[in-house]
Amino acid sequence: TTTTTTATSTTTTTTTTTTTSTAPGTVGLVARWRLDEPNNAVSLAATATDVLPSEDPLLFSGMYVHGPRRGLPGARGDTHTAVQFSGSEKQFVSFEHADAFLLATGTIAFWFNPDAPSGTQGLWSKDEKGTSSDGHVRMYLDNCALVTKLTRGGDFGGKKKSVTLRSAAGSVQAGHWHHVQLSWGGEQTALFLDGVLVASSRKYKHSLTDNGQNMVFAALNDEQTASELVIDSFFSGRLDDVALFGTPLTPTQAQALLACTNNGSSCEASVVPLDFPAEFAEYFVFEQPDTSGNSAPPPVSEGLVALWQLDEPAAGTASDVAVDTAGRINGTYVGGLPGVAEAAVTDADDVGGSTNSSSSGSRFAASFDASEQQHVVVAHDNVLALRNGSVSLWFWRPRKAKSTMGLFSKDADGVATAGHLSLQVKQGDLTARLQEGACLGTGSVSLKATNLGANRWHHVLVSWGTSGFRLFVNGELAAAKRTFTMGIHVNPETMVIAALNQKGTPRNYFDGALDAVAVFGSQVVPAQALSMIRCASISGCDPNIIPETATTTTA
């Protein structure tokens, strides 16, 4: 088959000479596309090769369009690589129809890793507009769920019939390898995600025997004529190891057949196995991601995770490093080193902010100049992936400051990821905001404290997790939403101090002084937080241990 492809906007015009192939007649593996061709930065179109041996090795080969990036780490972590697709660049893989794809029964299986699974993003499509032909199928992401729609044509069976199979909301996560498998033509049409049956239909009997449409990966093909293929709903993320089989399979059967292809001599890839050799055991392991948003790796410490004293400007250093005195994750000063201010009170017995003296060993704070866009950037690290946690800081603002200013932000534009957290002040009003994100819901909660005076220090502690979302100001509980239990463990965004990061780049810079910004691995109260901060500067004291501090403040 010879194909000439010219792509403009979302329309791909193809000139085709059709070669008819003979269906393999196997109930096993029909075709396999590893998607591990080496990267070629010069070529914008290259072949996606079918690895099955045949008289014509390109018989079932496809074409990469608009130059997706190849040669990246794949799903299994072995020497085989994957392909990165950019939705904004309209990248995809196109396969011309072949008779071998006219499968009355079959299975398709592959791996995908989305950059951000929000919106509609095509994974696999053998479709067209309308129902003049039969057996249309499309598989796509729809706001963090996996969806497959199968349609019978109007000329088959007297009326149009279709079925939509959908996984649970939030079952697809950004940056996570997922395995998908669709089987049709047997006792049921079945959709598997990560080795688990997530949706099926016993009434709907699908078949591809009358589907002569081209096949597309990493996008959807909505309309096709003799000369035009219209592509939309592009996928952003990685695809790996696509396989097509001639019979309905369970995930373990499909993976066993692929293991046969890898190992060669011990079994036959065209025969469905009844039992599985022990050496193939690793192919049956599918990682089950958290679909509820309620689990996360254990914190490195339930006590002090990180502490930025912000006293580097006072030391006269030329370095731009904001040192984490807990020794886990340093930050970077941007816009030049801030000025020097007297430190806030950080003694656990006095959180009223009524004085500038310190009994904790921290003698200085950082004075940020908003006109110079001064702030601190802390790159995301897994130590900040906290299901339960707290942030504590001191701030001092001049009376002249009138606009919204960011104190702390781990946020981004939109809701593609979850657990966005920000803390901001406008004149005397303080707001802490936590957002769920598209994968777990699009709700958000804002907690407010008002009438915070200028030209004085205020201590703020915000905590999140299974005990709810809470805001403390100067030692007292100012606001809480006990039923909002979102964490920031699914938040991969950069952390910013002295600015907001809601649009992907810092803005709303803080004009004033900040001191002792700390992160904790559990939901603590102010007296506990300040005790651990003080402990960090005392020899022999362990800030990873949460003190049993008596307090009358409860949540």
Quick structural gist:
The protein is mostly beta strands and 555 residues long.
Query: Span between N and C termini?
Result: 69 Å
Cα gyration radius (Å): 28 Å
Shape: elongated
Number of strands: 36
Please outline the major beta sheet.
8 strands, antiparallel
Task: Provide an overview of this structure.
With 555 residues, the chain is mainly beta. The chain is built from three helices and 36 strands. Strands 3, 6, 7, 9, 14, 15, 16 and 20 form an eight-stranded antiparallel beta sheet that branches. An eight-stranded antiparallel beta sheet has the order 4-5-8-17-10-11-12-13, with no helix packed on it. Strands 21, 24, 25, 27, 32, 33, 34 and 36 form an eight-stranded antiparallel beta sheet that branches. The model is unreliable at 1-25, 53-58, 346-361 and 550-555 (pLDDT under 50).
